[in-house]
Amino acid sequence: MIPATFTYKRAASAEEALDLAAEYGEDAKFLAGGHSLLPLMKLRLAAPEVLIDLGGLRDLSYVHDLGDHIAIGALTRHHDVEHSDVLASEIPLLAHAAGQVGDPQIRHRGTIGGSVAHADPASDLPAVLLALDATFTARGGDGSREIPAGEFFQSLFETSLEPGELLTEIRVPKPSDRAWSFQKFTQRAIDWAIVGVAVQGHSVALVNMGPTPLRATAVEQALAAGASPADAAAHAADGTSAPADIRASTAYREHLAQVLTRRALAEAH
After folding, report:
1. Based on C-alpha coordinates, what's the Rg of the chain?
2. Cα–Cα distances in Å, from 188 out to 66, 102, 185, 201?
3. N or C: where does the chain have the smaller number of CB atoms within 10 Å of the terminal CB?
């Protein structure tokens, strides 16, 4: 299908992008890699009147070690996250998960910030960053603010970003517990996860088990109480609202969540 007609603007700086967003208001959308927004536009599920292309903002593409945390520019490509020596050393869960996103073409174009801001519950990286207790930096006309990952994802495709705000950076604390695992089940390797599980220490987050990425709080509580990984994993579907669609029923997703969580905990611990 062909998207509805729109006006295209290419920003040369973050300041210009914010000025354009302020000028066009809710009629405008930021465009990063395009692998999330453009398919929705083709299906007419999104119809922004103005696209503000952020592709030229190379100053928002970086991975910096800042001592107690790693700072990642929102326009850092998945490929660069995957192959970052800093992340491989300090936060291997994130580097590994980035290498599981789509196919090489997608990983060379898609950005970590675009994935986060799109807030698709079937996307890998939002859940991974939730498990890592990341903080997101948003910049708007009134300055910058920090939003914890646990407060960022509001509902399906909706975040706490205000109109005109631009996600500029992801800050990930270096984990004290180095044990990690990422498991997901797909029909094909390049597909969205039917279910996924990210584990960092005793933090567990779920992919595609509700309208947002979710912390598996019942699993975390069981682990904290001394339960074995297998017994804790039995609670993976507690408090979730897994969707039913052409690929899987709710019951099947709940079963997968338990199986994948058990595998992830066994690998991490």
Report:
1. 18
2. 37, 10, 9, 28
3. N
Q: Is 130 among the domain residues?
A: yes
Tokens linked to 113: 């910030």
Is residue 79 located within the same domain as residue 167?
yes
Mean pLDDT of 222-248: 97
In a domain, 1, yes or no: no
| Separation CA 186–CA 170 (nearest Å) | 27
State both tokens at 115.
């994935």
What is the domain extent for residue 18?
Answer: 7-53
Rounded Cα distance, 74 and 63, in Å: 10
**Residue 11 to residue 57: CA distance in whole angstroms:** 7
Token digits of residue 79: 């490929």
Contact criterion met (CB below 8 Å) for 28 and 53: no
Q: What is the pLDDT of residues 131-189, one digit of tens each?
A: 999 999 999 988 999 999 999 999 999 999 998 899 999 999 999 999 999 999 999 88
236, amino acid identity? A
Residue 33 lies in a domain: yes
Predicted TM-score (pTM) above 0.90: yes
Instruction: Tell me, yes or no, whether 204 lies in a domain.
Output: yes
